[in-house]
Design a protein that fits this description.
This protein is mainly α and 393 residues long. It is built from 16 helices and 2 strands. Strands 1-2 form a two-stranded parallel sheet.
Length: 393
């Protein structure tokens, strides 16, 4: 490691230590970490690199076994949470093979809002994922073809994000961090379902890889933030690492995710941004951690699910889920969230993850059952009931 990188890494470690001990960390401006991809990946990789290729594929939120299980549930005459969730998914017009996509060379982002170009980019990403998932479940090649058309159109057209008047550059980092896992998840299914049954060519995959690299160049820069931005960036880095079989990118995201857990969930269980902002932003962080934990679990690493601080017996993330659930169910804690409910896209993933590991989260389970089936959110992949819903609680 060069002297410059040693200094950067020491600063990062010191800043994280300060936050872990309970000092206030700015909501949108964290400590200064390495901003470029290579420096951050080197620093994080030296902390506790775990992943070694080959990665398991499909390996972003859904495995081949899970895709097969969704298909079996949908085809079964019996009712189930998964089937109910999938039926809700079918109501999303973005999952239709007739969905009209339109790739753009540049996408303008707007601070704290969503302009028409950004909405187009997000909706097309969700459409690619939903069509890929529907093809894997039903075998309808029209959905496969639509997903491939969307992936190919954007990977051959998109060049960069632009900024609306009054919008700072970091907004593009966040938007890319939210969008990258959606696009990577769609491509992961198309590329790997049934050992490449879709027939997506090497040339098409190569173009998409370039598109993902462009998104990664924005997304990883958000990893310096110590709020939901940092979690979203970590998730994006993990997703890119799995899709691209890149252990450096995956490990950078995995280690950043684990570093974020005590910054997001305090020892009391309170979730960062709950008291200072609203009932939604804290759940951005919870959604990102849950999806990152699932990705890591698929790759054989349970460390995000089981991460504890000091001598705590309960995983810190599980403590945060329970705190949030009590706020939603009973109005307890730092903010009364009874009129809001759970954010889409993570609840059934979290319940499944902790039930599989014997960790009790009864309040979060109750909130999940009450809010089923979930839908897709504006920031993260949704329909977790369709992909991870279970009936044994």
């Amino acid at each position: 490691m060069t002297g410059n990188k040693k200094i950067r890494f020491s600063a990062m470690a010191l800043a994280l230590t300060i936050c872990w001990t309970g000092a206030a960390c700015a909501a949108d401006h964290g400590a200064v970490y390495p901003a470029d991809a290579d420096q951050w990946e080197l620093a994080a990789g030296e902390v506790s690199a775990k992943a070694v290729p080959p990665f398991k594929h499909p390996g972003i939120l859904v495995t081949q076994t899970r895709l097969n299980n969704i298909r079996a549930a949908v085809q079964s005459s019996a009712s189930s949470a998964m089937k109910t969730g999938y039926n809700r998914l079918l109501q999303d017009s973005r999952g239709l093979h007739t969905y009209a996509h339109s790739a753009l060379a540049t996408v303008q982002v707007v601070r704290a809002a969503s302009g028409p170009q950004e909405a187009r980019w997000k909706n097309d990403g969700f459409a690619a994922y939903l069509n890929a998932l529907r093809w894997a479940v039903t075998g309808d090649t029209r959905n496969r073809d639509k997903a491939i058309q969307i992936l190919d159109a954007w990977s051959s057209t998109f060049t960069a994000f632009t900024l609306a008047s009054g919008t700072d550059a970091p907004q593009a980092w966040l938007e890319a961090a939210w969008g990258l896992p959606v696009w990577a998840s769609a491509a992961e299914i198309i590329r790997h379902h049934n050992a490449g049954q879709a027939g997506w060519t090497t040339a098409q995959q190569s173009r998409f890889n370039g598109y993902l690299n462009r998104l990664y160049g924005y997304a990883n820069q958000a990893s310096s933030r110590t709020n939901n931005w940092g979690v979203s960036a970590a998730l994006a880095m993990m997703a890119a690492g799995v899709y691209q079989d890149d252990a450096n990118r995956y490990n950078a995201g995995l280690n950043r995710m684990k570093q974020m857990i005590p910054l997001i969930v305090y020892s009391s269980g309170e979730v960062q941004e709950l008291s200072a902002r609203d009932c939604h932003h804290p759940q951005y962080s919870l959604a990102g951690i849950a999806q990152g934990a699932e990705i890591a679990g698929i790759q054989g690493d349970t460390s995000v699910w089981t991460h504890t601080i000091g001598g705590e017996s309960q995983p810190r993330f599980a403590r945060g889920l329970e705190y949030m659930a009590k706020s939603i169910l009973y109005g307890e804690g730092a903010r009364d969230c009874r009129s809001y409910g759970l954010y889409d896209g993570y609840s059934d993933i979290a319940v499944n993850g902790y039930m599989n590991r014997g960790v009790a989260i009864p309040n979060f389970q109750n909130a999940t059952k009450r809010g089923r089936p979930d839908e897709i959110a504006a920031e993260f992949l949704g329909y977790s009931t369709a992909t991870h819903g279970r009936d044994d609680y």
